Amino acid sequence: MSQVISLALPFFGLIFLGFGSGRIAKIPRSGLAWLDFYLVYIALPALFYDLMSKTPIEELAQGGFILSTTFSTYAAFALSFAVGTIISNGDLKLATIQGLVGSYANVGYMGPGLTLAALGTAAAAPTALIFCFDVTLAFSLTPLMMALGGTEDLKLMQTIGVVAKRVFLHPFILGTIAGILAAAFHFQLPEALAQMVTFLRNSAAPTALFAIGVTVALQPMGRVPTELPILVAIKLVVHPFIAWLMLTWIGGFDPVWIKTAVLMASLPTAATTFVAAQQYDVYVSRAATAIVISTVLSVFTVTGVLALITYDLLPLTPFGR
Questions:
Q1: Which end of the chain, N or C, is less surrounded by CB atoms within 10 Å?
Q2: Is there a domain that residue 315 lies in?
């Protein structure tokens, strides 16, 4: 158990350090802006570039893996969306944000640091692939569903254009694509630039974890709505179970890839959900509450998944494949 604690404690310790700082320090929320900018536009894109540029290109041609993990995220969204639709009496706008609460994990800020610490560099490729397709979920389904719900004034083709722009111009996606191209053409950065990328990569995980803690500390907590325990359970328990079920049912995947997918799916709701709620002025305070609660509970659920992975208790071939 000490091995699991050694993995989980520094990880969640940085989050709690950020949380304590956010509660104690009398710094306005705007003070977080430059830290977020550094993470989103500089450090994390550098991390994804570095990881992908060192990954053999043939390892990325994993259609079955992409299909399985993407299906698990969309299935979690569909379940959460159905719960939201029932609770809200058919309000598509509310149900869409509730769908994100139950499906969109914090794969950008929390994912790389945790998977690489737990599973090593072999987790780099699956981590990046899951991130790319989960971002596509958040940035494509949200505006499309809001358009159906009557929030967006854009026509269908305009909406598709906005979605494509948001997905392909996302800094993380650009960093990933640049890394894939570098791997494909065996391009290597000059030594000085490579060293700078290494500095940025090494700073990404601790900075991101600290920022998560501050973000959670500054989130306005509202009342806990009736549906929230169900949505959080879907996110922290059902989502990783579906990912595990799909990958082991199809079979033939590297054990590290299966473990990476389950670990990524077990992460709490991303802060992007709150940003989307603010953008559309829907479910704002409850989305913030969901992020806080899921992050706190993930201390136990993610640690549990880490224990399964560390001690080889996660069944990898239950269907004999």
A1: N
A2: no
What does the alpha-carbon distance between residue 210 and residue 198 come to, in Å, rounded to a whole number?
A: 19
Q: Is residue 271 part of a domain?
A: yes
Is residue 243 scored above 90 in pLDDT? yes
pLDDT digits 0-9 by tens, 152-198: 555 666 767 777 777 788 888 899 899 999 998 999 999 999 999 99
In the chain, the number of structural domains is: 1
Q: CB of 282 within 8 A of CB of 93?
A: yes
316 or 51, which is more confident? Answer: 316
Q: What is the pLDDT of residue 85?
A: 94
Mean pLDDT across the chain, nearest whole number? 89
- Structural domain contains residue 316: no
- 261-275 burial: b if 16+ Cβ within 10 Å, else e: bbbbbbbbbbbbbbe
Considering only CA atoms, which of 80, 107, 104, 106 is closest in space to residue 94?
Answer: 80
- Per residue in 84-138, pLDDT tens? 999 988 888 899 999 999 999 999 889 998 999 999 989 988 998 998 888 887 7
Q: Determine the structural domain holding residue 14 and report its residue range.
A: 2-310
Instruction: Look up the CATH number of the domain holding residue 94.
Output: 1.20.1530.20
Backbone angles phi, psi at 296, to 5 degrees: -65, -45
Q: Is 320 inside any structural domain? A: no
